[in-house]
Amino acid sequence: xxxxxxxxxxxxxxxxxxxxxxxxxxxxxxxxxxxxxxxxxxxxxxxxxxxxxxxxxxxxxxxxxxxxxxxxxxxxxxxxxxxxxxxxxxxxxxxxxxxxxxxxxxxxxxxxxxxxxxxxxxxxxxxxxxxxxxxxxxxxxxxxxxxxxx
Length: 150
Fold this sequence. Notes:
Layout: H1 3-30, H2 37-64, H3 71-81, H4 83-131
């Protein structure tokens, strides 16, 4: 197995792990298990760091083989290494696009939950002033009787 193919397989495995974490994140939000999100975020950050390291290693290898750095050089290096390597590169690019799209979708879900929570808090904070006095007792309009004295 050639060097480029080894790097591509390692990157593919890492992206697949990342997709698994994205599934966990999505399910945690769908099930309102928001307490799990900090741990999931730590796992995502660790995998993103690992992906960046693997990407740098692959790029270093492609440059050592005489190809330019970046995606164009990776295309050329994968094509020059043969069909299995080219297919692995294409598959990695497709997985990376899927991971990007799913991560953006999960991010949108997080922001939607945060926006809803902020609006609810704002409403409750402004409504409290309408219904309760500084002593915590419910404000009454007119000459209504208080049901509880305290």
